Amino acid sequence: MTPRGRRRAGMVRPYTPTGGRAAPTRRTLDLATLLIADPDKPLHGLDAHSRRLMQHCLPGVLSLAEVSADLQLPAAVTKVLVSSLVDSSHLVSRDPVPAAQQHDRQLLERIRDALINL
């Protein structure tokens, strides 16, 4: 435990990367949200954390959880950064592909039986 008023070297308060913002501007972001960077958007003018996040996303599609883990930032901080980048159209966010819905078992069995009888 560190004495009061002292921090360990390298420790950054969560509000520092977000510029003091505590909540994302978008409530639709979750850990499975897919992030796609716009390669044509200039990175100058972005703060260091946002620029790093963009450079990380540029090769392809990543989930918010992957970005958070790879950049070693808390998910809440990553959500705030991502929402700002989506607002500025540097990033596009997409809902993950939904899992297949449960099919009607009886219908599938009737189809199977009809195919067998052919």
Overall description:
This protein has four helices and three strands; from the N terminus they run βαβααβα. The longest helix is centred in the last third of the chain and has 13 residues. The protein has one domain. The model has no long low-confidence stretch (mean pLDDT 78). The protein has 118 residues and is an alpha+beta fold. α2 packs across α3. The chain is elongated, with a radius of gyration of 21 Å. InterPro entries: DUF742.
* Head-to-tail CA distance between termini: 74 Å
Number of strands: 3
Mean pLDDT: 78
Q: Oligomeric status of the shown chains? A: single chain
Gross morphology is: elongated
Regions with pLDDT < 50 over 5+ consecutive residues? none
Radius of gyration: 21 Å
Q: Structural class of the secondary structure composition?
A: alpha+beta
Strand content: 5-15%
State the major sheet. Answer: 3 strands, antiparallel
Tally of structural domains:
1
Spatial order of the strands in the main sheet?
2-1-3
Helix content: 25-40%
The number of helices is 4
The topology string of helices and strands comes to: EHEHHEH
In a nutshell, what does this entry contain?
The protein contains four helices and three strands, in the order βαβααβα.
What's the topology here?
Layout lengths: L33 E4 L10 H10 L3 E3 H8 L3 H13 L3 E4 L10 H13 L1
Antiparallel strand pairs: 1-2, 1-3
Helix pairs in contact: 2-3
Pfam families: DUF742
Protein name: DUF742 domain-containing protein
InterPro entries: DUF742
